[in-house]
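User: Predict the structure for this protein chain, please.
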Amino acid sequence: MSWRGCPRAGRLDFGGAVSERESEIRVYAIVRSGGRQHKVAVGDIVEVDKISTAKVGDTVELSTLLVVDGDAVTSDPWVLAGIKVQAEVVDHHKGQKIDILRYKNKTGYRRRQGHRQQYTAIKVTEIPAAAK
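Assistant: Here is the predicted structure, written as structure tokens:
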């Protein structure tokens, strides 16, 4: 195969030029919900364990464990105590079915059980900046 037929031929980039995607400052946070941690950014739709007190369209606050704003990383619990990520409830739904099978050899013991986890889909609307 010749290099002329290669779509990348002549496009090698060894310079220090930064693409638009890399130069964009991305703000994201690690939040806790339902015993799990999720990485979220503004506009993301995330599935969390069901929030039974919230209805579709309500605003919920999620506790923050870490905030990254470009090069600034905030992980101090005293600062993060005042930062709550705002999110809007989009939907309540069930997850995929999980089949649970129990079997013991030579005894005739067989049990079959199914489970579908309840989830709440939330859309992140605001990540407040940490006080500097």
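Confidence is low (pLDDT under 50) at residues 10-14.
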